[in-house]
């Protein structure tokens, strides 16, 4: 026996301003019946309430992060500006990307 009745489906469809045909209503009812069956199967698993929920499906392996010493080395501005096509003082011109 489904927990979702056709009256409930009609009410929800009307609240959402969705017009359902009888075929669509039957299809939704069948889907809810299938969901109810699967939930019943899950609830029949022994000791399910004592299992801690898992928030991430894989075991995470943490590794040491690299040192920030290399990342914090400063590069002189003159060296950086050598990579730019158009430079005026310490400013660069970039291509226009928005029409």
Query: How big a fraction of the residues is strand?
Result: under 5%
Which range best describes the helical content: under 10%, 10-25%, 25-40%, 40-55%, 55-70% or over 70%? 40-55%
Helix and strand sequence: HHHHEE
DSSP, total strands:
2
Number of helices: 4
**CA-atom Rg in angstroms:** 30 Å
Descriptive overview:
This protein has four helices and two strands; from the N terminus they run ααααββ. The protein has helices spanning 6-15, 22-43, 68-71, 77-81, and strands spanning 87-88, 91-92. A two-stranded antiparallel sheet has the order 1-2. It is elongated.
What is the strand and helix layout of this fold?
Layout: H1 6-15, H2 22-43, H3 68-71, H4 77-81, E1 87-88, E2 91-92
Antiparallel strand pairs: 1-2
Which labels suit this protein?
two-stranded antiparallel ribbon; elongated
Put the structure in a nutshell.
This protein has 99 residues and is mostly helical. The protein has a domain at 6-50. It contains four helices and two strands; from the N terminus they run H-H-H-H-E-E.
